[in-house]
Amino acid sequence: MSSSLGTPLVTLQATLPWRSVLNGARLVAFAALLAFVWSAVQVGLFRGDLVNAGGWALVQQFFAAALRPELSTDFLLLTLEATLVTFAYAIGGLALSLVIGSLGGLLSSEVWWQARRPKARLLSSPWLIARGALVVPRAIHEAIWGLFLVRILGLDPLVAILALGIPFGAITAKVFSEILDETPRDALRALLNSGVPPARAMLYGLLPRALPNLISYSFYRLECAIRSATVLGVIGAGGLGYQILLSLQSLRYQEMWTLMAALLVLSGLTDWLSARIRQALGAPTRLELNAGADCASEAAARARATSGSRTLLGLLAAALVLTPLAFWYVQPDPSRLFAPHTTMLLGDMLRQMFPPDLSPANALTLLNLAAQTLAMSVFAIALAGLFGILLAYPAARPARHTRRAMFTYGIARAFLLFCRAIPAPVWALLILFIIFPGPLPGALAIGVHNLGILGRLIAEAVENADKRPVRALQHAGVPSAQAFLYGGLPMTLPQSLAYIFYRWENCMRETVIIGFVGAGGLGRLLTEQLSSFDYSGVTATLIMLLILTFAVDVLSNTARRAIR
Fold first, then answer.
1. pTM of the predicted protein model
2. N or C terminus: which one in the chain shows less Cβ crowding within 10 Å?
């Protein structure tokens, strides 16, 4: 090590989280490397007959069509209608998920039950029941919820709203509970010790501090809801996803690029609006993981300064206007939930689903495909995590607005937006042009889609990281690359790894919808079972998916705690 580098490193030793990063990350990194090698073998990366040479002509036609998209008046009107349907589904699903998430997040948080029963054992309280009740809804992909609900309710917009709201509500409840549990409790304890009832103490002592992160995550879920509403088009729910699928299946690439442009604009506007609102609220990131008490207290201080601002009032007004407008536009029929025909169909389906098919032959098939599905999720998150970290730094807003820096920043941001705006099933269909069907195209599709999401999340962590270590090294004459390696990377690596493990759970869920387009794993088996009305087999497959999702959830939480 050069002398020019040694002095600033000694000076900054107390500020850089080297020991905390290395102690937890070393073991996690070694286990991740072994898991990646195993997953690469399982998905068939080293097979000799991967590439379909005849598909390159279709790929060339697809990208050539980007220069001449379909711009006829009729098709533009169709695109506008599909965009509004997708946005309305996202707003309706988000509204339902926030209702479920707020109630479920409160009941599944440790702080709520500890405030109510300070001396009671947590595991013996209803907290455990609330936590367990959220596992099943969030483990089942929204597309699966959509397929079941279509069978019971028919082709009604209510299906798309419920299919988004139920699993998103469970996911939101889990994150809301974590936000509440990690918020500093000094004000809450003071109120409780003064004899204030727990509900009122939570309202005045904890909620104002947690509010910026709660609102920030709600907007993150809106972005997710738009992507998921697009995915629901694959099962015939309408909107942009359905039109993209029709255009792709009929090889009308000009139409497909017009539809994807609309999806990019919708996602980009939501991304921009989310960033502006979070900035006004003083919540710098969409999703705060492993933040610690210091960050939480800073966010709380900012929240107190802005809690009565026009931003919060504007958000409330927008919610009161957009939610009824979304329901009015798509016209869902809530009466179907209580119709006798619905009850009859639900009872008939449940009778067909139980008991599950756990015969030896089916169990062996499930175990083999479960290993393949797990490998797909590991390979996808490894791909997304590695390239997400690499692209996050050029995608972070540069400190110096030079022409070269802003050009690089714009290109990186646009690429990440394109990756995450296009649904994983559409990526899978495109990759299947040049790679033969199997688990590898599915893993690549999930990886590319999550690359866009992870890159954006990590870029925000980079933008909000402490810049003093890098500047100190640069002022000492250390080259930029070494300054980044020793001063920048350690500051953002724990948060980046936390994001990666958080998204791993989502990758596992997405393997199901990828199977619908023939990309392997338990999703492909589930598609075959649904098409043949083998509902006892469907139940067995869902049980295996629940086990896998729960295992990934436990491993992800353990890894995030190890690098905290």
1. 0.86
2. N
Q: Give the alpha-carbon dihedral of 263, 268, 274, 279, to 10 degrees.
A: 180
Instruction: Give the separation between CA 317 and CA 86, rounded to whole angstroms.
Output: 21
Q: What is the DSSP letter of 398?
A: P
How far apart (Å, rounded) are the C-alpha atoms in residues 217 and 389? 21
Q: What domains, with CATH codes, occur in the chain?
A: 3-9+25-46+360-562 (1.10.3720.10), 79-348 (1.10.3720.10)
Residue 259's Cβ-side half-sphere holds a number of Cα atoms within 13 Å equal to 28
Cα–Cα distance measured from residue 385 to residue 383, given in angstroms and rounded to the nearest whole number: 6
User: Cα separation of 328 and 316, whole Å?
Assistant: 19
Greatest CA separation for the chain: 80
521 bridge partner residues: none
What letter represents residue 423's amino acid? P
Between 10 and 222, where is the model more confident?
222
Residues 395 and 452: their CA atoms lie apart, in Å, by 11
Q: What is the pLDDT of residues 290-304, one digit of tens each?
A: 544 344 444 444 444
Q: For residue 193, which phi and psi values (nearest 5 degrees)?
A: -70, -20
Q: What is the DSSP string of 199-244?
A: HHHIIIIIHHHHHHHHHHHHHHHHHHHHHHHHHGGGGT--SHHHHH
